[in-house]
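Appendix B. Raw example, untouched.
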Amino acid sequence: MSSEPSNTSEASNHFLELLQDLTSDVRAGRKRKITGPIGPYLRAACWFPLAIDPFAVLEDVLYEGMEAEFAELQGNRTSSQSEEDVNSCQKKSYIKQYNELVKLVPTFSSIISEFEKAPSAMDNFIHALSSAANDARSDDTGSLTREGLTYMLKNPESDQFNPSLLKHHGKIARGWNHPQTARLLCPMRMLSTFDADSRYRSFMEKVKEGQIKITAAKLPTFLYDESMFDPAKKSQGCLRGYYLKRVFRHIFTGPSSALNPNARRGTKTPKGRIHGMTSPLPRAIAYAAVQAYFQLSSSNIWCQEIEDLDLVDLYDRVVDMFEGNTNRKWVEETLQHWKSEAPGLQQRRHTRAKTDAGSRVDDDDSEDDMDGFFDSEEHSPDAGNGSNDGSTGDGVPTRTDRNIDDMNGINYSLHSYFAHSSFLFCFRAS
């Protein structure tokens, strides 16, 4: 990563180099290389969907974050009270995400202020970062589609898909159209019912006909270590599923480590180490969970909703298992378990970054597997079930009210605030 300019002159020179890099010719249909002066910013953008939020629109995050930073330094309010009432939750979320992003590159804020000299180039800069973020998520999805089919088999050396499921069959053959992918998508609480179904057809057909609704509130089997599942303790075994771990390792420690965490590493430095991640982050685990769900599904196009299940809701629920959980013992034990499952993150190398068991729960009235999830014998009765102000009635905080500042494991330096300027408001697209 390029070093941070030490004075105004160096900052200006750095900006001119960035501007030249930004305006250099990039062939149509070709991805911009993550090198040169713009490299650190593109690299940070690539990390955004993996460790901050895969569903946020980075362009909106950048514009809202920059406006808020300028307004704060100027002591101005940019919205009327009525607008603030309507949009404040979303803006708060964008600003938090922006603050996490700018931590990744120390020169980020100073570079933004330099765009006052060339405001027309700002849109190109933001577009380049947004494209990099989209490409990063898309690359993971494509790579898993091509290489990750065998990850679904618990014992790839001995297990087989029955009926046959091959790459050329396409994703339409997955999801609720195949018993093995359907079993992993099946809510853990309903797995015994699924397994009792003769050849699984009745259960699968009921899902496809809408008689059984599959939502994020019913946590899928692939999130669990089935041997640990206890319907009376919903958190037990959760986020320890073999398929989830393999998807995570494929993304963050490399495909060669997916099936065997201790396998000899490939020739490329894994994404996790490139970005300085030394142990699995909660949001990286949540990212792996939504990528895993998409791979198991029959959907051919990445989208927020797959049948009745909202991937954003699933992502938020996994995040909240860490960030909103009053049972800190579970959080610590789960993260320690994940650290042991991803040894590839701990293999030091110079990087460019800074630094069956399932049984049906007939006596549970709740339709949401997050109800009671945070219960622990250790926390006090008044600690509740993880619900705080700004939460939904099921104890899961709303997406826009979650605190995303706790990026455990990332030891990036904070950015320096820059001199106030109002130029951003002059050219932002309406």
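End of appendix B.
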